[in-house]
Amino acid sequence: MRHIKTIDDITKDGDVEFGEGYDFVATAEEADAILMRSTDLHGYDLPEGIRAIARCGAGVNNIPVEEYARRGVVVFNSPGANSNAVKELVLAMMILSSRGVVQSMNWVRANADDPNILADAEKAKKAFVGRELKGKRVGVVGLGNVGSKVANALVDLGMDVYGYDPFISVEHAWALSQNVQRVGTLEDLCRGCDYLTLHVPSKADTKGMISTEQLALLAPGAVLINYARETIIDEDAVHAALESGKLSWFAGDFATPKTVLMPNTYITTHSGAGTGEAEANCADMAISELKDYLENGNIANSVNYPACNMGKARAASRIACLHANVPNMIGQITAILAKDNANVQRMVNESAGENAYTMFDTDEHLDSSTIEALKQIPAIYRVRVIK
């Protein structure tokens, strides 16, 4: 039996199923793995027995991923599982920023006691005239799980869509509409855009990527939408652009001390993925990742270890070594196996940055002394006997 500790409310209805061979435990000390959502684990006293953590969502800024990597704990996320929910809210923000919908509804509420409200509303509507999205130029920064869906939807709305992503994957490139025009630089993307929507992760090279220089290239009265991460924009530059009228509206999903004071904004409560369907999709993906890792040692969608898949564990024994990405690790592992006369059926070694993962199947079960010898190799973080 494998034991799972859940942190946070994973789904709105509380329905989380792992299936046969798994149970839920009250404390992390009893668990083999953790399923979580938004709790901040920085400073969390993680028990030694935890082998993996799965985050029901894409962002992992609430998890010390590198610290956990050095402890041999694989951290998974669920990229793309909530992408449709985010896409839909981005489209809603584009419409709200263009049509005076909220302002006209506020007018109606403010004049609810007017006995002639039907006629007066007809007169008042001129104050809320907006513009259509069709035919307008829009730039999409980042063409991954969310950005590619947003770009395709904007094509369907009849917009003139441009995309910028120097690291687009083959998968997302194939999924992208042929009517999305890709450009080579961020500056070329921004130039003349009526709308700019951001869909990139927060990294060293994306923090503050939308600042005064980029905003100056947009069309007068442009709309900026940020449903990626709060650090992507230079908040002072955005505020100045709103004050000057360079930006007509800014919509974002991050209520920071600065964004809540900006004029002409729609700021939501980090609600981009806030649907029951998205929660269920994220949970399903995270559960699948945990189960495959615990049962077979396979890794998919980890943020601190490389992808690795050897299928189902069918040999007499499957061993997984989590270690630093250093020279001669394979040689040290195989030297120990040779002393035990172990016959290795298959072996896979993958690396990602400073961390690496080696997994192998043997024809027989290894002696406990061999497993202990593997654990003593310098730069080995953890050795798992999967079967």
UniProtKB/TrEMBL annotation:
Residues 318-387 form the ACT domain. One of its GO terms (molecular function) is phosphoglycerate dehydrogenase activity. InterPro entries: ACT-like_dom_sf, ACT_dom, D-isomer_2_OHA_DH_cat_dom, D-isomer_DH_CS1, D-isomer_DH_NAD-bd, NAD(P)-bd_dom_sf. Its EC number is 1.1.1.399, 1.1.1.95. It comes from the Bacteria. It catalyses: (R)-2-hydroxyglutarate + NAD(+) = 2-oxoglutarate + NADH + H(+); (2R)-3-phosphoglycerate + NAD(+) = 3-phosphooxypyruvate + NADH + H(+). It holds the Pfam family 2-Hacid_dh_C. Keywords: NAD, Oxidoreductase. Pathway: Amino-acid biosynthesis; L-serine biosynthesis; L-serine from 3-phospho-D-glycerate: step 1/3. PROSITE patterns: ACT (PS51671), D_2_HYDROXYACID_DH_1 (PS00065). Catalyzes the reversible oxidation of 3-phospho-D-glycerate to 3-phosphonooxypyruvate, the first step of the phosphorylated L-serine biosynthesis pathway. Also catalyzes the reversible oxidation of 2-hydroxyglutarate to 2-oxoglutarate. PANTHER family: FORMATE DEHYDROGENASE 1, HYDROXYPYRUVATE REDUCTASE. Belongs to the D-isomer specific 2-hydroxyacid dehydrogenase family. This is D-3-phosphoglycerate dehydrogenase. The lineage of its organism: Bacteria, Bacillati, Actinomycetota, Coriobacteriia, Coriobacteriales.
